[in-house]
């Protein structure tokens, strides 16, 4: 079994796509797909790292086969 982490957009160089604005310009209906429920545009890389550290720790020794969203609420939209 494996655990997976499912982040929303992360504030990294890769997270600042030059392609996305052009895509949204041509397809404005896609905009809501990239929105978070919490009032943040992107999360910090430390937010993802902290979840990974938890999953690798003894505190998560019985956590198996989950998909852990770190997505500022985007999956509840």
From TrEMBL:
Gene3D superfamilies: NAD(P)-binding Rossmann-like Domain (3.40.50.720)
InterPro entries reported for this sequence: NAD(P)-bd_dom_sf (IPR036291), SDR_fam (IPR002347)
Name assigned to this protein: Enoyl-(Acyl carrier protein) reductase
């Amino acid at each position: 079994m494996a655990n997976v982490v499912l982040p929303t957009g992360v504030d990294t160089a890769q997270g600042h796509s030059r392609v996305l604005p052009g895509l949204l310009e041509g397809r404005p209906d896609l905009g809501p797909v990239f929105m978070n429920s919490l009032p943040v545009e992107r999360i910090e890389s430390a937010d993802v790292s902290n979840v990974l550290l938890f999953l690798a720790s003894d505190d998560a020794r019985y956590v198996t086969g989950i998909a852990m969203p770190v997505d500022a609420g985007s999956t509840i939209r």
